Amino acid sequence: MNRRDALRQTALLSATYFTAPFDRLTDPLRRGYPLGACDWSLQRACNPAVFAYAKKIGLDGVQLSYNSRSDESYLLRPENQQAMREASQNAGVKMASLAIGELNRVPLKSEARTVDWISGSIDAAKALEVKVVLLAFFSQGDLRNDEAGKKVVIERLKSLAPKAEKQGITLAIESYLSAQEHLDIIEAVGSPNLKVYYDPRNAADAGHDPYTEIPLLGQQKLICEVHLKENGNLLGQGSIDWPRIRQLLRQIRFKGWAHIEGAMPQGKTLDEAYPQNVQYARKIVG
């Protein structure tokens, strides 16, 4: 090999070594994002034991319930926060985000005490060093065709937004509303700390098109976390085109957590279903 050939080969090897790996490490379109599951889906809501189970099935983190029907301020209390910290550290599984699923039963639009719940969840999120609190709007809290309810929610979120901004916590709406309706609420509240918790299955069930909604919300970086769910089916065995969802999330440079929720076929146990869900979900988030 003469000197010119040697230099050419060195340059080629350098380009291959420095360019391709660097792109994979730095380009969000080529990177994965962390995978968790909801503590209620793992049948261990408000229970530190959820972290050991999450570790067992290969998850990176857990989305924690802020409260329960029997304990309206569970994660606001320091002793419970400490129990979660220790369980998380022992398992090597992260606390990813919080969720107030109880808003489905006791709605923000009609129950004033839920404002205190959300305020407390902001404090709990700050103490636990997580950045997102999911606010659920299903069942009794459904906002579809409820303009009066939307107005109350907007006003109550306006009152909570300054605290969320000061603490650096994102409040995330999850509902059956369309992407445009979510945008309207966010614009009316006027806070950068109000975003959307996106669930493609919920969108499809409500008659919306997740494949157009994700780009619409992604243009303004309004999707903070996503749920991976199929009602009554394992992931990959329902009607959602998850490879297409994966590509859309890459296109909007999504960087947040993805959490498995539900995806439990009738007759299967958690131990039977969730290792399969985790295995499939890795293809989406990887």
From TrEMBL:
Keyword Isomerase recorded: yes
A family per Pfam: AP_endonuc_2
Transmembrane segments: none
Keywords per UniProt: Isomerase
Start and end residues of each Xylose isomerase-like TIM barrel domain: 51-282
Entries under Gene3D superfamilies matching the protein: Divalent-metal-dependent TIM barrel enzymes
Listed name of the protein: Sugar phosphate isomerase/epimerase
Source species taxonomy: Bacteria, Pseudomonadati, Bacteroidota, Cytophagia, Cytophagales
